[in-house]
Each structure stands twice: as structure tokens, then as C-alpha cells.
Design brief:
The chain contains twelve helices and two strands; from the N terminus they run βααααααβαααααα. The protein has helices spanning 11-18, 38-52, 59-66, 70-73, 80-93, 105-122, 138-149, 158-189, 193-199, 201-207, 214-227, 233-254, and strands at residues 4-5, 129-130. By secondary structure, it is mainly α.
Length: 255
């Protein structure tokens, strides 16, 4: 379960920060003109999250990175909840926008999936943040507009179009989380999957009975040989994306 979620702060102040309202327009804004921009603050927090994970992002740590006192940072951003929304929106604004291989909807949707996968690779912490209430900033809205455009012309009604995009992004996020878990396991053990299985092969051979689990033994051996381990993020993504596209193809054809 995600330990952080978007839109957990004060809605009025968050939206004002996201949309860059002037000091006079921001709710509760007081004091002298500020020397730092919200973009600089978000960039510092993103760099910290990229390097150490989102749990490392605290108001104190971000203030240190910017050469500010923690109290000074609070004059820019009310708290971590609002800061997280700024971080997400900044990341969304800079997400790659790929050129599809052709004009077909499958190529366009594949490009959207690949772009989101690239976002998660660059910023692994994003997959761990719950966005059931997304930050409605300019970065998110531009991303949403771009992604919806991949489904235009398919004949899907608007509600189904939104649901199809949600389904696609949920798949990509799941793959991103599993890939992050695989990277973490490799780093923690200082071994690749192939090395880990080889190191534990003798013990596994003593406790695992292939006659009791014949299908698992057969399929597991085939997958392990193909992937060099129990799980391949690249294969899981390619295989799953093709199935998502096939499912959408059936839905669109039914219309």
C-alpha cells in the first residue's frame, strides 16, 4: 500500500501553488517577495526522491538542499503534502512524448505506455505514490490531454475512453513497481537473479519435490531458463502490454 498520496494537503493552497498564482492571489500568503521559485523547490525535492526514495523527502532535507532554514521553506510551501503534489506535477510536465510508429491507435497507445514506463524508470518513487486524487496541476492536465489523444478516433464513448487509459496506466504502474522491487532485491543481495538462484540451487533441490508440483516444476524451469531468473521486467511488460492492447482491440471492435 502506498505510504504517500497526492492531494492530501490544503486544496486551495495546493492549486494556487500548482498554477503559479501571484502572491496576492495565494490563500494565506504573507511576507516579503520570495527569492526561490516553486519550480526550484520541486526540482530539489525530486532529485532527493530520485536518489533516496520519497521517504527521504522531508521539509528539513529539502530546505538543506536549497540552503534555507526549515521555517523559511514553509513560507514557500505549507508542508510535505503540497510539496509532493508539486513534485508529481513537475514530473508529469516533463514526461517524454514519443512519436508513434504509425497513425494507428495501437501505436499511439503503445507510445503512451512506453512514455509512462520511461517516467517511472527515471523517477521510481512515483509508482509508490497513491494518485487516486491526482494533483490537478498544469503538468497533469497536459499529460492527460496527450494520453487521451492516443484513443481519439477509436469510437469509444468518453467514459470508456477514460477507463481504457486508466487500465493502461494501471498496468504500467504495476510493472514499474515490480521492476523496482526486482532492482531493490538485486541491490540488497548484491546478486543478479541468476546468481541468486545458482547460489541457492542445492538447498532448493533438497526441499522442492518436482513430483508433487509437476506443472510448477516444468513451467518454472522453462521461465527461469528463458529469463535467467524467476522474473523478467522487460518480458512481463512486453507480454502484458500486448494483452492490454488485444483486450482494447476487442472492446473497440465491439463498438
Amino acid at each position: 500500500m502506498a505510504s504517500d498520496r497526492s492531494s492530501a494537503g490544503d486544496p486551495a493552497r495546493t492549486l494556487a501553488l500548482l498554477w503559479g498564482l501571484t502572491a496576492e492571489e495565494r490563500p494565506g500568503r504573507r511576507g516579503p517577495r520570495q527569492a526561490r521559485s516553486t519550480g526550484e523547490i520541486a526540482a530539489a525535492a525530486i532529485a532527493l526522491a530520485d536518489a533516496e526514495g520519497v521517504d527521504a523527502v522531508t521539509m528539513r532535507r529539502v530546505a538543506q538542499e536549497l540552503g534555507l532554514s526549515p521555517m523559511a521553506l514553509y513560507t514557500y510551501v505549507p508542508g510535505k503534502a503540497e510539496l509532493l503534489d508539486l513534485m508529481l506535477d513537475a514530473v508529469y510536465a516533463t514526461m517524454p512524448r514519443s512519436t508513434p510508429a504509425d497513425e494507428g491507435w495501437r501505436s499511439r497507445v503503445t507510445a503512451v505506455a512506453d512514455d509512462n514506463r520511461a517516467l517511472h524508470r527515471a523517477h521510481p518513487w512515483v509508482a509508490a505514490v497513491s494518485t487516486s486524487r491526482p494533483p490537478l496541476g498544469p503538468g497533469l492536465m497536459a499529460k492527460y490531454e496527450y494520453e487521451l489523444g492516443a484513443f481519439e478516433g477509436t469510437g469509444l464513448p468518453d467514459v470508456d475512453l477514460d477507463a481504457a487509459l486508466t487500465h493502461l496506466l494501471g498496468f504500467v504502474q504495476t510493472c514499474a513497481r515490480m521492476a523496482a522491487d526486482e532492482r531493490a532485491a538485486r541491490q540488497d543481495s548484491a546478486m543478479t537473479d541468476e546468481q541468486w538462484w545458482a547460489a541457492n540451487a542445492e538447498l532448493l533441490a533438497r526441499v522442492f519435490d518436482p513430483e508433487r508440483y509437476p506443472v510448477a516444476a516444468r513451467v518454472g524451469a522453462a521461465a527461469g531458463e528463458a529469463h535467467g531468473g524467476a522474473y523478467s521486467p522487460d518480458h512481463a511488460y512486453a507480454f502484458g502490454l500486448a494483452r492490454v492492447l488485444d483486450g482494447l482491440d476487442a472492446l473497440i471492435a465491439g463498438r
